[in-house]
Amino acid sequence: MNIVLIGYRGTGKSSVAKLLAERLKWPLISTDTEIIKKAGLSVPEIIQKRGWDYFRDVESKICQRVGAKDRTIIDTGGGAVLRKENVDALRQRGRVFWLTAEVATIMERIKHNKDRPALTQNKDYVDEVEDVLKERLPLYKAACDQIVPTDGRTLEEIADEVQGKM
To answer: pLDDT by residue (tens digit) across 130-165?
Structure first.
């Protein structure tokens, strides 16, 4: 059984995944890190030079590969749920936890990160987060086994809840 973390950027997936991997002594795989390794480019460079379709195609291949693993912490990119085949692959041997946060919390957490490309055209950052979240909320909900709110909580509290729901 794997632990799969899904959710929008800035909800704490990567930080919680690291903590869980340390606690459980399980390997950690970040789908975004795997995409970066394969492409040899940062995420913004991948999007600029090769486009979102390329990114999503590589992401799907990685989800297929990591979904077949066992006793692994899988930290997904925020858009992994956009393709049903990714969700199916991740659920194959994984318990899927949707980490959530309010828009204000997300904005506070990601405001200084330059490694996150724009997901929409011609929108300010808050509008973009709200619009993309609105689109993805039903996908996250359909994909998850458990919902774990992260607002106002420590990484330890969040990891405790994930472990308690395994």
So the answer is: 888 888 999 999 999 999 999 999 999 999 999 999
- 4 CB burial (10 A radius; 0-12, 13-18, 19+): buried
Token couple for 22: 């340390």
What architecture is domain 2-164? 3-Layer(aba) Sandwich (3.40)
How many Å apart are CA 102 and CA 12, to the nearest integer? 12
For residue 29, list its beta bridge partners.
74
pLDDT at residue 123, rounded to an integer:
52
CA angle 77, 137, 129 (to 5 degrees): 70
> What are the boundaries of each domain within the chain?
2-164
Q: What pLDDT shows up at residue 163? A: 95
pLDDT at 74: 98
Q: Which one, of 165, 163, 164, lies nearest residue 17 by Cα? A: 163
Tell me the pTM. Answer: 0.89
Q: What is the mean pLDDT of residues 41-52?
A: 91
39: which residues sit within 8 A by CB, 6+ positions away?
45, 46, 50, 54, 58
